[in-house]
Amino acid sequence: MGHGVKSSTGLRWNPGLNVNVNGIAPIQSSQAMNKAINVCVLGVGLAGLTFHVPFILALPDRFTLHSVLERNPVSPGGKVQARFGVSPKIYRSLEAVLEDPEIELVIVGTPNHTHYEFAKRALESGKHVLVDKPITATSEQAKELGHLAKTKGLTLYPFQNRRWDADFLALRRLIDLPRSSPDSLGDIVEFESHYDRYRKGLKGTWKDKPLPANGQLYDLGTHIIDQTLNLFGRPTKLTAFVQNLRGVGHAEVDDSFTIHMHYPEGSALPYPMTAILRAHILSARAPQLRFVVRGTRGTYLKYGVDNQEDQLKAMQTPEGIFAPGFGAEPEQLWGTLEHITDDETTITKKSWPSESPGAYVELFKNLAAVIREGAEQAVKWEESTAVIEMVELAHKSAQEGRTIIVPNL
Fold this sequence. Notes:
Elements: E1 5-6, E2 12-13, H1 30-34, E3 37-42, H2 46-58, E4 63-69, H3 78-84, E5 89-91, H4 94-99, E6 105-108, H5 115-124, E7 128-132, H6 139-152, E8 156-159, H7 166-175, E9 188-194, H8 216-232, E10 237-243, E11 256-263, E12 273-279, E13 289-295, E14 298-303, H9 308-314, E15 335-340, E16 347-352, H10 361-373, H11 381-400, E17 404-405
Parallel strand pairs: 3-4, 3-6, 4-5, 6-7, 7-8, 9-12
Antiparallel strand pairs: 1-2, 9-13, 10-11, 10-17, 11-12, 13-14, 14-15, 15-16
Helix pairs in contact: 5-6, 6-11, 8-11
C-alpha cells in the first residue's frame, strides 16, 4: 500500500500514479519524483486549519496546497486566506474536488461520519488519501478502504499524529531502555494512559450529535488506543466502561470511558500486564495526569499533555513549526522516575526529560516519501484498522457488561 517498486532502470515508481489505459503504471521520471504533491484539504475547521494546512504550507518542497473544500466561504479567499494569507482554490463540493485531475492527495478533515464515504470516493477517483482519526466508524469499513487502496495502488494513510507527541516519544525512549540501564523500569506490569478534561457543558458542534463515529471513545480514545497498541501489541481480552457521565446531550454520545486491555503472561511481556486507558470529562485538576507506568524495578509518572495543538492554534505563520521551542515540553512537565534500591528498602526519585520535541511534521514528511519514493508508512492502515476494532469491542463490552475476548488476527 503506497510502496514503490523498482524498475529495471533502478528508478522507483508508484503504481498509483499516472496509470495508463492498460492499467500499467509507467516509470516516474526524477522530475516527477521531485515535484511537490498537489493537495486538497477537505474541511477548514479545527482539523483542517490546525492539524493539516499548516504542515502542508510548511513543507513547500514536498506539498502544494492546491485547494480546499469550504462549502460556505464568507470571503473570497476563505478561511485559509484569512488565517495564513495564502489563497488556494476553493471548492464547494466534493464532486468538484474529485473531478480535478491536478489534485494528487486528498486530506479528509471533515466530520467523523463522513470519513469513510469521502475517503472511498477519493480513492475511487484515483487520489491518494490521508484520513483524520477516527478513520471510519467500523473496522469493516476500514478493511474495505484498505483493500480498495491496495487494488488501485494508492497510498491510504491514517492520521495518528500523536505518535509524535513529546510525552509519548519520552515514554517510548524509557520503555525501550535495555534492562542493564539504571533507568530501566524492569518488566512492565501495568500501563495507565489518561486523556482527562474538565468540561460541564456541550460545545454545540457536530461532535455532540448521535452520528456514526462520534463520542469521546472515537475521538480521544483512538489516540491513546493507537499509542498502546504501538507499544504492546494486541491484547487478548478487553473490559470497558463507556458512558455519558454528565447526562447532557444525547445519551448515545459518550463523554467518558475506561478500558482495560489484558495481556497475559508470555504475550507482550513476561508478566501479566494490564493497560488502563481513560478519558474523564469531569477531572478538575491541572496539570492532568497523563501516564502511570509500573514495572518490576520502578514507576514512571507523568502529568500534562503535548503542547503542539496549542502552539498550532496560536501560530500566525506555518514557518513557526520549525522555530526553536516548537513542540518542546516545559521542564516542569517532564516525567518522574522512581526506583526501588537493590536492597528493596529505599525509593529513589529523578526526572525523566522529554528530550525530543513533539514533531507532527514527521508524519507529513513520511507521507510525502511514501507517495513519491515508495517509503514504508510510519503508521500503517492496518494498525488504525485495529484501533477501530478495539473501539468496537469496547462499546460491545460496555453494552453487554462483560469482558470480551479479542479475536486473533
